[in-house]
Write a structure and sequence with these properties.
heterodimer, A: about 270 residues, mainly alpha, 13 helices, about 65% helix, about 0% strand, elongated, B: about 200 residues, Rna Polymerase Sigma Factor, Chain: A, binds zinc ion
Amino acid sequence: MMTCEQSRELFIEALYDELPIDVKREFDQHLVSCAKCATDFQNMKTTLKIMDQRSRTEPDQAYWNSYWDRLSSKIAEERDPSKKFTWRPARLPAWAYGIAAMFLIAMGIYLGRTYFGQHELSQPEIEHPIATNPVPLIEDSTTTQALVYLERSKNLLIGFANRSEDESTSRDLSHQQEVSRRLIQQASMLKTALNKPDQQLMRQLILDLEVILLQLANIEVKRGIPAVELVKKGIDQKSILLKINLEEMRAMARRPSASSDKKIRTTL
Amino acid sequence: MTDEQVLITQAQRGDPEAFRELVERSKINVYRLAYDLTGNHHDAEDLSQEVFVKAYRGLPNFRGNAKWSTWLYRITTNACIDHRRSQSRTTMEYKDDLGDDETTSEHNHRHSVLNPDRSVEAGMIQENIERALSRLAPQERSVFVLRHYHDLPLKEIAETMKIAEGTVKSYLFRALQRLQRELAFYKKDLGLEEQ
Ligand SMILES: [Zn+2]
């Protein structure tokens, strides 16, 4: 025979139908024979019925459509250079930084594979300068040009960062330096054109990129590998590839057709 | 490997589209849970976004055998409890004791009696239910909301909140006792109890 105390311990499971059948039978028998428990149980049931009448005020579709846009901006903000040394809790153990570094590297490798397959950085960069490249208009031609610029810079940096020592001939490097110089020229125009408040993250990113591109353009071939490695390290430390990617996601999320056409492609 | 596990692995490898897909799939549930735990849109928006930023940061540490929704619910619950604690330091919304709360019930009752119109009355019910929820301690509210509005079995709530199942039951019991006191006057109004 179940005691009152035992029956009370089963109230919650009984209310939410989580009692095994045989226990439930015993519980029900107790309620039949004990008015006090039966009343208390009924009162709780009634309270739940009242709580069932609660309704949520749900946001509209426009809210959900722009949800990712707002989120990706927040993630990008965390990577903003002015905050980059503060966003991670300072008390993280050393191994956590290792994992974070691996994640960034994995992201870079993934971008390299996804966006550019196995192909090496090659002629199209020079043969199709940005200014003469026909680009489909998104919602703002400056933003579009900036996105194309970011894509080309990413292409260049991935090609550069993935150089193996075997292939680091001076010819390859001088080609990459040539591309770098062209991009730097484009940057000065974009920096002026990106003047709207919502373009400031992108402008900052282009400023960051410029530092790396200048370093790359100015590597002296005869100084060889150490100088190359130094620039590569700069790319990693600034998480520049990840930032480009986040900025692209942010811009894509703002596009009306974001769901059907998520990735931007240059006309390479 | 489930579709979800594939997406998680891809996101962990740095695929932003995979992470986006995971967000798209879970944003409504995370938002609703945050709303149920805070009671207002503004906090639900802020906290749900904070949850996904935390999930993004925590992705490399996410174990493949864990359940994505459980993990997100845990982040959400913790974020809301922290938020609530920081708020209650200044406003003291809820009382930790289970003592005499007659004054609030009387106040609520007076509110509803003063508005005989049905639609106003319906609005009052919503208001009073939200108020009753806000009287719960953060853990009590979390277990109640997860069980009652998100249909999580007790065992899953225990996993989500990293507490023992017995503790879940006792929080839930206390939550129900408190809600019952807060809403006692409604039983008669709604014809749910014979006089
Ligand atoms: Zn009894």
